[in-house]
Design brief:
Number of strands: 2
Helix content: 55-70%
Number of helices: 9
Strand content: under 5%
Order of helices and strands: HHHHHHHHHEE
Largest sheet: 2 strands, antiparallel
Shape: globular
Length: 209
């Protein structure tokens, strides 16, 4: 425990774990249909802190690449040229053309936010389950004002709580991995009716050659 706490102090200076996890703590005192949003805020803070840390030490973030740099540049150039070609025939104002080129076409190489959030787990060697991937995808819904809990029945509440529990467990697992911890942890996102939370073991994924 002393060694683990020493590691925690060192990691906390780099990541500010209290800042990352505070929305999760706040979620326990809010409404059921607000909890997932709080959990996703913690997830965003974790991803931002990890990206900043990697940049500071020069490590490579294993991001999912949808296009190579060269492919993205070629597509952006072709789309921009085609838009300028159609400008007159479509009677497009300059401000509309500039907006499309600068805000839409220029960002075509940017990966979806859900993929960006997954990068921290990929880099830390944490394989995501299908339920974890689906919970992360809910981020866009809650941050754009859409409801993920569409009913008020017990099953609706249980489903929403489960999504929150999956997200907070993901954040906890990432923090444990940052502490170089390999051992048992409580999986709040995996529970059967009438039973306690599952105990799983956080095992580092073997490195490939």
């Amino acid at each position: 425990m002393p060694a683990l706490f020493e590691k925690f102090v060192a990691v906390d200076k780099q990541f500010n774990i209290d800042f990352i996890s505070s929305p999760i703590r706040a979620a326990f005192d809010t409404y059921a249909d607000d909890k997932l949003a709080f959990g996703c805020i913690s997830l965003e803070r974790l991803a931002a802190a990890h990206k900043k840390h990697c940049k500071s030490i020069g490590c490579t973030v294993d991001a999912k690449k949808h296009l190579t740099k060269e492919q993205g540049a070629s597509i952006r150039q072709a789309l921009s040229e085609k838009l300028l070609e159609l400008k007159e025939s479509l009677d497009l104002p300059n401000d509309v053309v500039n907006f499309l080129i600068d805000k839409k076409i220029a960002n075509i190489h940017t990966p979806p936010n859900a993929d960006s959030l997954k990068e921290v787990f990929t880099t830390l060697g944490i394989d995501l389950t299908q339920s974890e991937k689906l919970a992360i995808q809910q981020r866009n819904h809650v941050f754009h004002g859409s409801q993920t809990m569409t009913g008020t029945g017990l099953k609706d509440i249980e489903s929403e709580m489960k999504r929150f529990d999956i997200i907070r467990t993901l954040v906890y697992k990432a923090v444990l991995r940052l502490l170089n911890y390999d051992g048992p942890y409580m999986d709040y996102g995996d529970v059967d009716a009438g039973k306690a939370f599952s105990i799983r073991v956080l095992v580092r994924r073997p490195q490939t050659e």
